[in-house]
Amino acid sequence: MGHHRGMPAPRAELSSLASALEELRTRVAGLADQARSAQDDDTANELFAVERALTGAGRRLARLVSPPRRPG
Fold it and tell me: Counting CB atoms within 10 angstroms of each CB, which of 6, 15, 29, 39 has the fewest?
């Protein structure tokens, strides 16, 4: 699904996506906090799960954007 092997994605575009993803994660976290404050535990739990998934996706994108570490 949408994987293009052999053509690396431009770092600038990946960085932009990572920023957008972080903004989305922050918004979801805010909604989760609101739901928790309203004692809507089911919604809060689902939103916190979404936040965790977005955090993981952000880490994966960050690894693509960051230069590889050199041993040493």
Answer: 6
C-alpha triplet 31, 62, 50: angle, nearest 5°: 25
Domain range summary for the chain, segments of one domain joined by +: 11-65
CA distance 65 to 4: 17
> What Å distances lie between residue 60 and 24, 32, 43, 64, CA to CA?
15, 23, 26, 7
* Distance (Å, whole) CA 63 – CA 67: 8
Tens-level pLDDT at each residue, the chain (72 residues): 555 555 567 888 999 999 999 999 999 999 999 999 999 999 999 999 999 999 999 999 999 888 777 776
